[in-house]
Amino acid sequence: MRLVSRQLALFCFTLLSTFSIANQSVQARAPDTFEEMHAVPTVIDSPQWYAFEFKLGPYSPGGENRAFKDTFGNDRGWLVGVEFDLTIWHIPYVGTINAGAGFAWANYDAKAFVAGAGSTRAGENTEFTIYPLSALAVLRIDALARNFGVPILFAAKIGYDFVPWSAETGGRSDANGLNKGLRYGGQVGLELDFFEPDAARTLDQEYGINHTSLFFEFFESKTKGTGDRSFALGFGAVF
Amino acid sequence: MNRYALLVLTLFTVPCAAATAQIKGDKVLSVRIDGDAPEGLFYINAALCDKNADVQVRLQNLGSPGFLEVWRSSSEENCHAAAGRTVQAGGKDPACTRIGEPLQSPGSSPTVLLKAADLATQNKPCDQGGTQKVYFVPLENATPEGAASGVSEGLGDPSWVTFTVDVIPPSAPSNLSGEDGENRISVKWKGTDNSDTADGATVYYDPSGISKADADCTSELLMAKKALESTEGLEASREAAGTTESSISPDSLGLKTGEQIPVAVVSRDKAGNRSLLSEVICLRRIDTDGFIDRYDEAEGNGLEKCSMQAPGRASFSGLGSLTFLALALVARRRRTA
């Protein structure tokens, strides 16, 4: 009986050892098929936690503001801005939710009016400058690019605008102030990785920049006196 | 009479700004014209010619020559070789002319004093322009009249300095026009066509000519200073070459609303010559409405004004706090992930 138990134990041990060794061999063996030898290596991206945008577009503060149009005519700025986003949550197969902060600048100038002479212009300039600051919640959707190879990106943004502004005439400050209001917008972008995948890979490996894109953004700022509905074109990067 | 009435034997080589581009050879240390050390070209302009200004050339490393001769030529080739340096008694000056008499025992580091008239022309002082090269030739023996001068053995080739003579003033600015304003008044003009020699313009304001807006624009001071010998009593604003507009704050001129001030413009060239004054016009200080004035009239209180000098300070701190909070939350999540 003891002998049978010993033999059974030895058999079981041998069987288990054989299986474990076999399994280890399967995990460690060199590729021996054509597919394994020429398979595309698995690409591992660097961590992605931030986004940066640089954008430019026309902007006319106050919308249909009569005084603005009378003074500056068709001057649309341009509004130059940057935005920095911090990723709060990666949504699998969808994209990311971010907290964003934006800063922009636009300046408008024209000849001042002669006081009491209607639309007669004087020789000195009058200027109006705005510095919009935005606090945003941003949903970035890159599902098409990540899962289906379609290099189209989307973003939805909502937040609050703080717009410091200043006005001067002939180099002397007339007034300054701060306007506040809701801001929202949407964005569609073209990811640039597909043009040069190798360059994009190098950019990620060397500098941690995961993806770059060109985008069109439509937005509206509801700040009274400095708000407008407009668009911007820009360049973005996630890293 | 020996023109070198004043000769300073310099023992210390004080570093002076020397326009090395206009100096050839290692014997010339520095050049001062009317007490100033020019940067760039050595100009002799009309004002320097008119007062026959001093031109001092400090030399060095002459060794121990018996004599020092100074020669002048409009061409580099005329005086460089010894054969070109011929002293002639009377008659027409040759292409290479000796300035004054040779200086005996000049020492190793003398300062040579010349006059602007020595450099302006070969025949008549200050009536021509062009380039004059002045050579400094150390010799063992003075050159007698009728013979070519020689170079003392071991002292090398003569060094020389190039002077650019420009006694022609630029043309006066024309087509003056003014722009009235409350905080800035401006004047525009058409400048000289010669962009190669132009150095800019100077705008002159006459505070003594301030008058009410409906008075005629006159300035006894500007009219009297047509040739601008002196700028006393005038406020000046220098503009760089290529600029054809200048603006100034009326407060700096003491101009009140409703008053006007005479203004004229003078062109300058690189040699320092100044043109005659342009025509005199008047600039007025008037009340103006800027964008904010029109906005207040039309819209009321749409723009929220701040009472503080720096707008949005509270908003900046609020945004900063939100940003800091968000970063802290994210950092905490990443640590626990």
Walk me through this protein's architecture.
The complex is a heterodimer of chains A (239) and B (337). Chain A has 239 residues and is of the alpha+beta class. In chain A, 23% of the residues lie in helices and 50% in strands. The longest helix of chain A has 27 residues, at 2-28. Chain A starts with a helix and ends with a strand. The model of chain B is unreliable at 4-20 and 308-316 (pLDDT under 50). In chain B, the strands form four sheets. In chain B, strands 2, 4, 6, 7, 8, 10 and 11 form a seven-stranded mixed β-sheet that branches. Chain B has 337 residues and is an alpha+beta fold. Chain B has helices spanning 46-50, 76-80, 116-120, 220-224, 250-253, 291-299, 313-336; strands at residues 8-9, 23-24, 28-33, 42-45, 54-59, 67-73, 96-98, 103-104, 110-115, 130-139, 159-166, 174-179, 185-190, 198-205, 211-212, 235-239, 245-248, 259-269, 281-284, 288-289.
Radius of gyration of chain B: 31 Å
Main sheet summary of chain B: 7 strands, mixed
Shape of chain B: elongated
Low-confidence stretches of chain A: 19-26
Structural class of chain B: alpha+beta
Mean pLDDT of chain A: 85
- H and E order of chain A: HHEHEEEEHEEHEE
The residue-averaged pLDDT of chain B reads 76
End-to-end distance of chain B: 100 Å
Oligomeric organization of the protein chains = heterodimer
The beta-strand count of chain B equals: 20
**DSSP helical segment count of chain A:** 5
Unreliable residue stretches of chain B: 4-20, 308-316
The radius of gyration computed from the alpha-carbon positions of chain A, rounded to a whole number of angstroms, is: 30 Å
Distance between the amino and carboxyl termini of chain A: 69 Å
Give the CA-based shape of chain A: elongated
Strand content bin of chain B: 25-35%
